[in-house]
Design goal:
eight-stranded antiparallel beta sheet; alpha+beta; 660 residues; Nucleotidyltransferase, domain 5; single chain
């Protein structure tokens, strides 16, 4: 069969019509897996008479004249859908790029199309803007220089201070739970600041205008927007270039503002209650500049450990350089006193931000399995306590949080010695740490009473293997954890040790919590003893911590190097998180596997600060692991809002966290 001759542009009918060709670099980012982010280009072919877009195409790089020619021919052959146009060629084509017009003129003239260079019409700008908004999904942040009174010199000073702050890494000394009062000269009152970065997720600074705003952030609220004061919540994030407004990027290039690192573009944001974002005012930027200069100096030169995992009270006045001259900054630690008893029970993401309304998080609670085990074993007698415990097995299976709480109270009505009922109430009814502590204490007391002194003497070393011990062990773990969260770390220690004595098989993973606490309290000798007690443990938590303790004891010795290489051999993913080549995700993995990336994330989330606070340890790790040339962390999603404290209504989503 003879091949159908190929149709050319000259075969198409010609209309008296002008097409405009625009090639623009879009103000959006694309980041293919494993590649650096880049800005795509859009080619727009518009009919000026018809007011229609004849063709739009996204390309990853500036298109060549040959590519543009092919797109023009395609637009002639295939009119836009939804119109009554037929395939045709225009009589004239305008091009914004003079070189492009010259390159295509000779070929287009051959098919009777006139070509000329012409500036872009305003309508094209509107089309490109609408396309960018569609692809971005929301409006871009306004530029810093768009704020009234903000000048290039002021923003330049802010950028320089931010770069110095980032390089100084004050998150090595401070956590986002430790608040500073920072007053700069010229302001009547101190503002309050928390350093982000100790957890390795977000880096930066959170600022509050009043102490009551700090208290609001750490209070149980029904919706995350309620934690922001009416005038907005202030945060400064360090992040990658893909999150910087393009107007700011152009200003960075124009004014040569300083940026410390590819992950350290400073992005100050004001979060509003109506899900809006703004940029900080002139006064806010002046405060940021002075505070960013002063806080690293204060953390390095004035903070002194109190021996309990915190710092002694201290205040100092510092003189720091700013764009407007030397500025006095007075800093006090702590900035105020939060009643830990009234702090929310847990932290994490809000359900409303995790799923659409009506979605259910039906997470299986492994404690419900004990009910099935109890039925298999059977009971020699049906006591009130056993009836109450059977009700708790039903509660662990229940998906409705309100019903779970009701069942716990019903269990206590049957038997006041039901420790599991107090555990559930601590997890799901208590809205503050103080109330949770009370429930856990009651659970431990009634658990001890129900088991009896003789039981502890006879079965020590075999707990958890006996079903009747598990409610007590859960209550005691909850009590120890609550004491730690309340800052009563020394009180928590003996509980962890005692649980390991009662159950050296450690079904609950107590040794990992205890190891972290010992390192927090700088009890390296006890931590080494614990490592030796479970010497066969091959998890990252054990192997990498053994290497860290060896480095603390003797520097980069052969023993430390051997321990580190063993750890890297078992899980090579850990160094990337400890050396900041990768950021720790905001949501920790539900499950971890031996030697996988989830295990690396979990280890780094709990032990990053110990490595950072050991002088030289991270550099040694980076050199030994050879991660210096790794792929840097990149992302295109916006920084998370300051993490709210979890309300009691959301705790039911985290079932299944305790080991069975």
């Amino acid at each position: 069969m003879p091949r159908k001759p190929r149709r050319s542009a000259s075969d198409l009918p010609q209309h008296s019509e002008t097409w405009h060709v625009a090639v623009r670099s879009l103000r959006i980012w694309i980041t293919p897996p494993g590649e650096d982010p880049s800005r795509p280009f859009v080619v727009l072919i518009v009919s000026l008479e018809a007011g229609t877009v004849q063709k739009v195409e996204l390309v990853p790089a500036p298109p060549t004249p040959e590519q543009i020619g092919g797109m023009l021919f395609q637009a002639m052959k295939e009119p836009p859908t939804g119109t009554r146009q037929i395939a045709h060629r225009p009589s004239h084509i305008e091009m914004e790029d003079a070189e492009l017009a010259a390159a295509l003129a000779s070929e287009l003239v051959k098919v009777g199309i006139g070509v000329k260079h012409h500036p872009r019409p305003e309508a094209i700008d509107e089309i490109v803007h609408d396309l960018e908004l569609h692809l971005r999904g929301k409006p871009e942040l306004p530029a810093l220089l768009s704020v009234k009174g903000v000048t290039p010199d002021l923003v330049g000073g802010f950028f320089a201070a931010a770069a110095e702050f980032y390089r100084a890494a004050p998150w090595v000394h401070l956590t986002d739970q430790q608040t500073l009062a920072v007053q700069i000269s010229g302001e009547r009152r101190a503002r309050f600041a928390q350093v982000m970065g100790a957890g390795g997720v977000e880096y930066g600074l959170v600022m509050y205008r009043r102490w009551k705003d700090v208290e609001l952030m750490f209070s149980p609220v029904d919706h995350p927007v309620e934690m922001f004061p009416p005038e907005g919540g202030h945060s400064l994030f360090f992040d990658v270039v893909t999150l910087v407004p393009f107007d700011d990027l152009e200003a960075i290039e124009r004014y040569a503002w300083e940026v410390a690192d590819h992950q350290a573009y400073p992005i100050p944001i004001v979060y509003k209650r109506k899900s809006e974002v703004e940029r900080p005012s002139r006064a806010d930027l002046k405060w940021y500049e002075a505070a960013l200069r002063a806080i690293p100096i204060f953390a390095r030169d004035h903070l002194r450990p109190d021996g309990q995992g915190d710092y002694l009270h201290v205040e100092a006045t510092l003189l720091v350089p700013t764009y407007a001259g030397e500025t006095s900054v007075h800093i006090r630690y702590p900035g105020g006193t939060l009643s830990r008893q009234s702090l929310p029970v847990d932290t994490g993401a809000w359900p409303a931000l995790e799923a659409e309304a009506g979605d259910e998080f039906l997470v299986f609670d492994r404690r419900a399995m004990e009910g099935m085990m109890a039925k298999i074993v059977g009971h020699s007698e049906s006591s009130a306590l056993q009836k109450a415990q059977d009700l708790m097995y039903r509660a662990w299976e229940e998906h409705n949080p309100g019903r779970r709480i009701i069942l716990a109270h019903e269990a206590l009505d049957i038997s006041p010695d039901c420790a599991d009922a107090f555990v559930l109430l601590a997890e799901e009814e208590a809205d503050t740490l103080g109330r949770a502590l009370e429930y856990y204490q009651r659970g431990v007391e009634v658990g001890e009473r129900a088991l009896g002194k003789a039981y502890f003497e006879e079965y020590a070393g075999h707990f958890w293997g006996l079903l009747e011990t598990r409610p007590y062990m859960r209550a005691r773990l909850g009590l120890a954890n609550a004491l730690w969260e309340l800052g009563r770390k020394e009180e928590a220690l003996p509980h962890y040790w005692e649980m390991l004595r009662l159950n050296p098989g450690d079904n609950q993973g107590i040794r990992y919590v205890l190891l972290n606490l010992l390192l927090t309290l700088n009890r390296d000798a006890e931590a080494a003893e614990l490592l030796e007690q479970y010497a066969e443990d091959g998890m990252a938590e054990w192997l990498y911590t053994r290497a860290l303790l060896a480095f603390r004891a003797g520097g980069a010795s052969q023993g430390a190097e051997d321990a580190l290489q063993e750890a890297i051999g078992m899980n090579p993913h850990v160094p990337a998180y400890l050396t900041r080549r990768k950021r720790i995700p905001a949501r920790l993995p539900e499950y971890i596997g031996w030697g996988d990336d989830n295990e690396a994330v979990s280890y780094a989330a709990h032990h990053l600060s110990h490595w950072r606070r050991t002088p030289g340890a991270v550099d040694w790790l980076a050199q030994s692991a050879g991660v210096a040339g790794g792929q840097p962390y990149l992302r295109t999603s916006p920084p998370a809002r300051p993490k709210p404290k979890r309300s009691k209504s959301s705790k039911s989503k985290r079932r299944g966290k305790l080991s069975n």
